[in-house]
Amino acid sequence: MSLFEFLALVVIAAVAGGIGQAIAGYSLGGCLVSAVVGFIGALLGMWIARQLGLPELWVINIGSRPFPVIWSIIGSALFTVVIGVLTRDRDWA
């Protein structure tokens, strides 16, 4: 994988993670965190899609590596919601 391919993959993951966080209504951090959330979302989204027998939607091939954009956004939103629920401040008054 070349440097350009890696940077393109990071940018696409960051955009997908940012969209997923926007859908969830909770931000976990900045641009690098959005990229990490995008990659985790891609893994989570594709795992869910495979378990349910759903097709891959809008896959972008960068070099020889496919990146499932729609499942990344869905997985990012789910991951963000779970992290938001686990880490939010609780008012025990």
Which H/E pattern describes the elements? HHEEH
Radius of gyration (Å)? 14 Å
Structural class: mainly alpha
List low-pLDDT spans: none
Mean pLDDT: 86
What fraction of the residues are assigned to beta strands by DSSP? 5-15%
Q: What is the tally of beta strands? A: 2
Question: What's the end-to-end separation, in Å?
Answer: 53 Å
The dominant shape is flat
Helix tally equals: 3
Trace the largest sheet across and list its strands: 1-2
What about the largest sheet?
A: 2 strands, antiparallel
Give an overview of the whole structure.
This protein has 93 residues and is mainly alpha-helical. Helices cover 68% and strands 9% of the residues. The longest helix is centred in the N-terminal third of the chain and has 22 residues, at 3-24. The mean pLDDT is 86.
Keywords:
single chain; 93 residues; mainly alpha; 3 helices; 68% helix; flat
Short overview:
With 93 residues, the protein is mainly alpha-helical. Helix content is 68%, strand content 9%. Strands 1-2 form a two-stranded antiparallel ribbon.
SSE layout and pairing:
Blueprint: H1 3-24, H2 31-52, E1 59-62, E2 65-68, H3 69-87
Antiparallel strand pairs: 1-2
Helix pairs in contact: 1-2, 1-3, 2-3
